[in-house]
Design goal:
- The protein is α/β, with parallel strands linked by helices.
- It contains nine helices and six strands; from the N terminus they run βαβαβαβααβααβαα.
- The chain is globular and about 50 Å long.
- The termini are far apart.
């Protein structure tokens, strides 16, 4: 059975406890050998991050220092232009040809998949693992519903055996923490302690990040 590695991308502006908890849920549920957290350089689908790439990368490394299965991968920060996920997956497949990959995403991101660049090519490079909330949320677009037929599985062993192309919906811990809320609290002079890992909180406080 091939090694299965998770891929979790985002701006991580800043990294917070909900990011880390849901990632760990997937690692444990799927028996993943590792999970690579990849901070985005220029996000195509959201606003430009408030702090620079080096600072976000540093906070990410602080956050995962105690978890050996979490690896920080800066390949998107070293690439010019928008951070297209399909290009990132291609470079990972090239660098690690003996591994299978699964791309982690939230339910909202999955529903918006038809708006991504070359989105149908994603499943040629990796499996998709959708981190699911208890509530069903908005309905999926018809285009995505049609594409999903024949790809969905609830069996993690299939993702270990096959190289790409499957979609698995995984329940994860529900923590109502968001980077948007964290930045808003800091902008208003509030505390974000216990919403982010302690080393990240300490760095934000000392560097006065996100403060007015």
């Amino acid at each position: 059975m091939s090694t299965l590695t998770g891929i979790f991308g985002g701006t991580f502006d800043p990294i917070h406890n909900a990011h880390l908890r849901v990632a760990l849920d997937v690692v444990e549920a799927g028996g993943l050998e590792a999970l690579r957290l990849i901070p985005c350089h220029i996000p195509p689908h959201r606003e430009t991050p408030q702090v620079d790439a080096d600072t976000r990368l540093h906070m990410l490394r602080l956050a995962v220092a105690g978890e050996p299965r979490f690896l920080v991968d800066d390949r998107e920060l070293r690439r010019d232009g928008p951070s297209w996920t399909v290009d990132t997956l291609r470079t990972l497949r090239s660098d690690f040809p003996d591994r299978h990959f699964c791309l982690l995403m939230g339910s909202d991101s999955f529903r918006g998949l038809p708006g991504w660049s070359r989105w149908q090519e994603l499943a040629e490079q990796a499996h998709l693992v959708v981190m699911q909330r208890p509530d069903p949320g908005r309905a999926m677009p018809e285009e995505l519903t049609r594409w999903l037929r024949g790809r969905e599985t609830a069996d993690w062993s299939v993702l270990h055996r096959e190289s790409a192309g499957r979609v698995l919906f995984q329940s994860v811990a529900q923590l109502a923490i968001s980077a948007t809320d964290i930045r808003a609290r800091l902008a208003q002079g509030g505390s974000i302690r216990y919403l982010v890992p302690d080393p990240v909180w300490d760095h934000i406080e000392k560097a006065r990040l996100y403060r007015p």
